[in-house]
Every structure is written in structure tokens, then in C-alpha cells.
Specification:
Length: about 280
């Protein structure tokens, strides 16, 4: 059985009885700490109404698979925050197979952090963190992941997971356990194309079963070429999850600059804020 943190670090809410939401939630509702539920309320853990002052924009970016565009989405969110005059943190706690992703996030956040604060564990083999650590006769320490997140403070920022929700971080914890521990609203990146409905529904069901907030689902075409399923992905997912915001699909682009521009445009609702 997987271990479970006894209490969330931040952003936890309670939900109570009530009618379904009268309006479709916007990404900003979830980015500012409100969890999704068919009967979600807007209260703090102590049961009092939320204050009018919105908490900072903070996200946990995860994916339905590896190689779906998580780092591109994370970097675009960080760059958008920087463009608004914010000083966001980047956090990629575990990285396997090199350091390209954490380097990209460090640069996108403005290069102000110590690099060791951005990524706590780097492994040579392109494997799940727990397996890559085992190959090097090392261990990922759960407490270090949590303390590394706490050390980032309460400001805006982006945490990027490794692979999908059930990628093992250590012998007892998966990525979804870290999401639950941080309490951050999730940006789920899904591969646009054939098969994404199944993968996305499974991921959303897992998140919502734990009461975890979903800020948005971002559909990204990760491969060149046209697929007949591309125009059908989003409408079918919206039919199944009418209260969740879906963004995209973002078309494939082999070049970094136009790809980043497309990301920025699609993610604009997520980083809109009252400064």
C-alpha cells in the first residue's frame, strides 16, 4: 500500500453537500487554490470563507504519459509569470536521463534560484526516479522532497512531476502522492491524438478520486502529422468532465520559438491575475 502524507502542505479544502456548480469554472478559479468537485465549496481548511485576497499562482504540472510536453507547458507558465513581474520558483524534484528539463525551468523562471533548489535528485538512467535511484544504489528521500518544496516559500511557481501520476518516486510514493502532499492545483498535460481519451480519463479519475484540484487539462500534439482523432479529443473530454477547463489542442511545431508562442497563447487564461 502506498504511503500517504498525514496532512497536506498547502491548499487543502473541504467539500460539503450542495448543488452542482452553477457556472463552468475558469482556470483562474483553480489556479488560486479552489479544488474541483461536483459539489465543491470555497472554504479554507478551518471552515471559514476564503479571504478576498487571492493566493499566488502555483501549479503542479503532470502528464498522462512521458514526452507529452510537460516541460514546455511548465516553462511557458513560468515565463508568463515573469512577464507579469512575478518572481516564480521552479521545482523539478527528480529528473532522470540528464538535466535538460530542470535547466529549462530554471531559465524560464528567471535564473534566480540556486540550481540545487530546482532539482534535488538527478539520475543518469532514463527511468522512473525510484528505479533510476536503485540502479545507482541510491534512494529518493520522501522527507527531502517535502522539505525542498517547503523551502520554496509561499510565492508563485511551478512544480513539474516525472512522467505520469503513478510513476514511483520511492518505494512507497508515486507522483500523485507528491501532488497530494503539496496541495497544488494540477495542470494535466495530455497527448493530443488517438488514445488520449482513455489516458486522460484515467488520470482525471485518479486525481478527482482523491479530491485534488485540476486547474486545466492541456492537449498538446507531440508528433508531426494529422490524426483523425485530433478534432474529437477535446469535445469528448469536455462532455465527460463539463466542469473542468480544457485548453488546446496545441498543434505540433518542430521549432522552439513558435512552439513557445503557441503555448503562451493557449495558457493565457491560467496566468491571468489581478496584480
Amino acid at each position: 500500500m502506498k504511503g500517504r502524507p498525514s496532512t497536506p502542505l498547502a491548499g487543502s479544502t473541504e467539500t460539503g453537500p450542495g448543488a452542482a456548480q452553477a457556472r463552468r469554472k475558469t482556470p483562474l478559479d483553480f489556479a488560486r487554490g479552489e479544488r474541483w468537485s461536483s459539489s465543491a465549496g470555497s472554504i479554507n481548511p478551518n471552515g471559514r470563507p476564503r479571504s478576498r485576497r487571492a493566493p499566488p499562482l502555483r501549479f503542479f504540472v503532470t502528464g498522462t504519459d512521458t514526452g507529452v510536453g510537460k516541460t514546455e507547458v511548465s516553462a511557458a507558465l513560468l515565463e508568463a509569470m515573469v512577464a507579469q513581474g512575478l518572481r516564480p520558483f521552479a521545482f523539478k524534484p527528480c529528473e532522470s536521463g540528464g538535466n535538460a528539463d530542470s535547466q529549462t525551468l530554471w531559465e524560464a523562471a528567471g535564473s534566480w534560484q540556486k540550481r540545487q533548489a530546482v532539482c534535488l535528485y538527478r539520475f543518469r538512467a532514463p527511468l522512473a526516479p525510484a528505479l533510476a535511484a536503485r540502479a545507482e544504489r541510491k534512494k529518493v528521500q520522501w522527507r527531502r522532497l517535502l522539505s525542498g518544496f517547503r523551502a520554496l516559500g509561499d510565492g508563485p511557481g511551478v512544480v513539474e512531476g516525472a512522467g505520469g501520476l503513478f510513476v514511483p518516486l520511492d518505494e512507497r510514493h508515486d507522483v500523485i502522492d507528491l501532488i497530494e502532499a503539496t496541495g497544488l492545483p494540477v495542470v494535466l498535460v495530455a497527448r493530443a491524438g488517438l488514445g488520449t481519451i482513455n489516458h486522460t480519463v484515467l488520470s482525471l479519475d485518479a486525481l478527482l478520486a482523491r479530491g485534488l484540484g485540476v486547474a486545466a487539462v492541456v492537449l498538446v500534439q507531440a508528433r508531426r502529422g494529422w490524426e483523425p482523432s485530433l478534432p474529437t479529443n477535446r469535445p469528448e473530454l469536455e462532455r465527460r468532465f463539463p466542469h473542468l477547463p480544457f485548453l488546446g489542442p496545441l498543434p505540433f511545431s518542430p521549432h522552439a520559438k513558435p512552439r513557445r508562442a503557441l503555448m503562451a497563447k493557449a495558457l493565457a487564461p491560467l496566468i491571468a491575475s489581478e496584480l
